[in-house]
Amino acid sequence: MVPSGSKITLTHDLIIFSIDYRYLKTFHHSRNQNGEHLTSSTTQLTLNVMETHVGPSGFVELTCISTIPAYLDDEEERFADKRIQTISGEKNFGRQCVFCDEGPKLIDDLKPDKAYMEKYIFKNPVEKGTQYAKIMSENQINTIRKDFADHGMNHLEGGWPKELDTNDEEAVLRFRKKIERLDNYILAMKHLTAPMEHAILQNNAVNIYEQYFVNTVSAISSEKASCRIQNVFRDPQEVKRPITHCSWSPIENEFALTHCNMNFQRLLPDQTFKSYIWDVENSNTPLLHFEAKMPIVSLEFNPKDAHSLAGGMYSGQVAGFDSRKGPEPVVLSCKESSHRDPAHSVLWISTKSGMEFFSTSSDGTVKWWDCRKLDNPVDFIILDTSKGEKPSFTRAMAASCLEYEPNIPARYMVGSENGYIIAGNRKGTNQQEKLPWMMKAHYGPIYTIHRNQAFNKNVLTVGDWSARIFSEDCKESAILWTKYHNTRLTAGEWSQTRASVFFLTREDGVLDLWDILQEQKHAYLSFKLSDQPLTCLRVRDDGELVVVGNAVGTAFVVRYSTNLAETSKNDKNFLGAMFDRESRREKLLETRNKEIRFRMREIALAKEMKEDKSEPVKTDFEIAVQNLKEKLETDLLNAFNDVKQEEQKLETGGDVEEAEEDEEDEDEIDEN
């Protein structure tokens, strides 16, 4: 035991484990940093012993005050007064430790320091995020595009030596016999015939072209509606021109694009007027280009001949092209008999020859042409709807688009630049029969008119900021319409395979797909294609591919998922019921408007009679108005009853008819 208050000196054969409240340090005074023993001198540390205690394992525990080493800083000085020192010799290293329970022992009680409290500053809460992962950056750059061209060679005859004339049959026969007698020829034939024979037998075993599931009904697809850009086609010219029209070829993988700047006096003197035919799978080089002396505004494939095309020019002329005869027009109309303004739309019509088409322009005329002879139009009409007057160019409406359905060969529709739809009938004998009716559709030019393939009475129109669906039975207003968008709509078209789907393009570069059976307030699927305005679109016959052009000469071929192109079993029935319901609603509103107008006329007539202070004598006109009013009320009541019965039939099926039959039976029983 060491007396309390005495001093001890630790030499090189002892190790001191110094433990305090903030850190643990081990002082080894008998070895240097390399582990070598110190022989020249020994490190000494003087301790003031306060308490001594012998532990259960033979260790000497001292509570002492040590001399503060020079390397301790100011913070450590506060905690260096009292420490527990455990001293042991090297002989006790490795001995088993025996631990025992012992109560808590208060070593020190640190009071708060007021000086430090005065210096403490409360920091405002700060939100700070940290990320352990490394910061990465992604950059994209378009490499310089290279133009590629495809070249092929038709190799009909095998390779022969130079000295052999292939036209000499005897020389060829002698050469063949010479080769067939060689040993290498026989060995080569043995090696080649074995795999060939195996392939022939395998090919004959299974008919790879057999259709096993021809008449089966396809199940409802659970595929998520989606779309993707399949290919991008850019204008090969340095000066980029807007795409004004696109058309699919009867050969499904080809389509035509026309490039023309329609802004007034924007045609450059050295600018080319090329339009192109592209292959869907090859975006590097166009298959063919067409070039005329003026820009081509519209270009349409002949549905009966994939090599024939009809085009409308910026000068108002129309031309016929043949892909087999080069880029120049085969036939071209003369300026005297052509349109006065650019020919915006050209469509082929259904005839026996398959060589006729018609065109329209902003000069207010529609002209029919035979591409075998374009000297003069076959027929023409001025879009003047004034009644009782001779048609005049001064009153003609500027046309912006055409619509034609081959199933109705004599009828067509024209969209005007002031928002009117004009119906036309080529079989009419006078101006009123040729243009039977017109209706106000939009506040600006109509860019597209397209009939539904399944329901020919319903027409899609695109103009101003909305798209509308009209029915030929309701000539006062649309039966369905989209909301007003923030940007203008530029084109639209029905899907060829799914009757409830149509596509719209917008000036903000977005392509919208609408399915009116799924959603009527918003687009069912929207896809951002470009930062530039989209100008035109055309849907392929299979409904999966859509080609879209923009204002800088870039065309996008967009592929939609199969479930957006295929129609289900009840889609046509549901869509037909929707069109019928909306048409009846519009008819009822039309009847109500007529009734209101008649009442307004009656009130105005009564006011006139009161102002004249004449005797209230009923005139023939008043009697006729009264009779018409009663008839309209009766018709309106019957129409409401019919609509109510139709709705009950749709909701309850045949329950309504059965209930009516039961009521009739009860009436008969009561009468008996």
UniProtKB/TrEMBL annotation:
Location relative to the cell: Cytoplasm, Cytoskeleton, Cilium axoneme
GO BP annotations, alphabetical order: cilium movement; outer dynein arm assembly
GO MF term set: dynein heavy chain binding; dynein light chain binding
Region Disordered: start-end pairs: 643-672
GO CC term (a single one): outer dynein arm
InterPro entries, sorted: Dynein_IC, WD40/YVTN_repeat-like_dom_sf, WD40_repeat_dom_sf, WD40_rpt
Compositional bias of kind Basic and acidic residues: 643-652
Compositional bias (Acidic residues): 654-672
Keyword annotations from UniProtKB, A to Z: Cell projection, Cilium, Cytoplasm, Cytoskeleton, Dynein, Microtubule, Motor protein, Repeat, WD repeat
Family: Belongs to the dynein intermediate chain family.
Protein name, as recorded: Dynein intermediate chain 3, ciliary, putative
Name of encoding gene: 8235659
